[in-house]
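Incident log entry.

Two folding requests arrived from the same account within the same minute. Monitoring flagged them as a possible duplicate submission, but the sequences differ. Recording both here for audit purposes.

Request one:
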Amino acid sequence: MNKTLKNIIKTSLFITLGIFLFWLVYKDFDSNTLLSELKNVKYEWFILMFILGMLSHISRTIRWQMILNSDGSKVGFVNTLLAVLNGYFANIAFPRLGEVTRCAIVSKYEKQNFSKVLGTMVSERLVDVIMLALFTILAVALQSTEIKEFIVSNPDIGKNLEKYTTIPMLILYFVLAIIGIIFLIQIIRGKLDNIKLFKKLNEFIKGFWLGFISLKNVKKPFLFIFHSVFIWTMYFLMLYVCFFAFEGFEDLGILVALILFVAGSFGMLAPAPNGIGAYHFMVIQTLIIYGIAQEKAAAFALTVHGIQTIILVLAGFASFILVPIVNKDK
């Protein structure tokens, strides 16, 4: 099977998965009720969401520039921004294609080694993983009382959790963790390179590590940390301001928005275009826990994700057109 055909099949599978998940989430909702909810949305709040989103993209561009230029290179802001926007655009069609796309644009038009650019992108993604972990810990810590109350009010969930936290189960987790670490060490040492899958995993881990240690070369570490926090704060505020577009949501408060943001972020990790289906499921189920009616929760997820996707498509398409125009003399 040639590479082009394989990519077409992969893309088709991911799109099909996204559509299936979306259908699965919304199949039991009444379309008339959803339309009624959508008519009551205060759409002017999404202008602010757009502004916050663009600020996050600009900040991400500057942060990526800092890594790219840590070796003395002079990668330009405009091409880096256009590459970032193109990356988001590509990810809508095919998950993770965006990372390769934006690296290719910077490599081609800024005359940078592709492997080096890919390594910096890995570094950036690693920081994003750390930021998501920090936001998750913060959300759970600040909403621990509410989470406990939810478990108490849903005894079936509590019983299921107890099954997985008994002494024998904890011992099993520990043994599996030790086996996993030993196995991982064998992969890193190249002992399993004769197996194609493990060889690729070994290369990925080493690339990840090289990307991580490259962060030490960033010239202004505190500014880098500031942009990392700023990017994810903007992501969070993009969701929070949407609360004011829906009747009854403004009473939920900023801490509920934080939990919802974390849940939605994990939904976006699903291997579907822009997290379609998985994002909606996570957001709807979280809102239901906090007392929002199913139809209103479904309308919220549909509207927020839909408008975010439209913004990314428009910005991405514009950047796709601008890349060759901006670089016509190169």
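Request two (distinct sequence, not a duplicate):
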Amino acid sequence: MARAPFAFRENGAARWCEEASRSGSTAVIVATAALWYPYVNGDTEGTEMTSNGYLLQTVDLRVSRENREILRGVNLVIQPNAVHAVLGLNGSGKSTLAYTLAGSGGYTPSRGQILFEGRDIVPLGISERGKLGITLAWQEPARFEGLTVERYLGLGMREPDHQRVEEALEAVALDRSYLQRYVDDTLSGGERKRVELAAVYAMRPKLAILDEPDSGIDTLSLNDIAQLIHRMATEGTSVLLISHRHEVVAIADVASLICEGVIVQTADPTTVCDRYACCCRPCDHVAPVESEAEYERL
């Protein structure tokens, strides 16, 4: 947890933090990192699509944490405009995969490639990947003091677009009354999660990585999440869903099962969910689930 003022790059977040500093406001932040580095059309020179047509591909991806190998040769392919789910038990490497793809600090691969539109992005940090169009929505939704929902949804845009902000709220089944509410503890966890997903939608990223998008959301709201995800895909965003729940995986076009840091199956969601239900059991060798303090967001 950190406090403003911040020295972000040239985007809406920087403008807001400068204003907050001048006014004496204090922002308590648990941030969605990619929001500070908005994707802008035209910022992707040198990232031509490969002949195989994949948006993202990992090749023998290996990542270690505290001298323990968590990802042990992940091979994954994500197609353009597709919804791809990664299903696995807690500790199987799902979140580590998400943080590695986004470029979070402490998650540099020891081996392998991450190809985004044909370019190996392993050397790039989280900000550079954000500029290419990769966005990560954290499992824990953001909390701010002194920042309205309207301003928050505009942070990932080069120029705030009020119509797009309202569309983003509508996409997560929140009405206009939320625009002037604050992104803090006055919102429930489910409301903050919806606002976080709305912020990702508003950015129009090329790839949205959603880590446990149903976290804090009641079962009835899963229909809203499903509609949002398919709306994003229809508008040109590929979505990588990270989850341990069958209901979420059913939203996807294709699913991969991860076990002990290895993708063991990729198929249609029903086939993968059946194998998960039949074969996956908690075991002693899985890695403990990391707490928020154990990874670096910015």
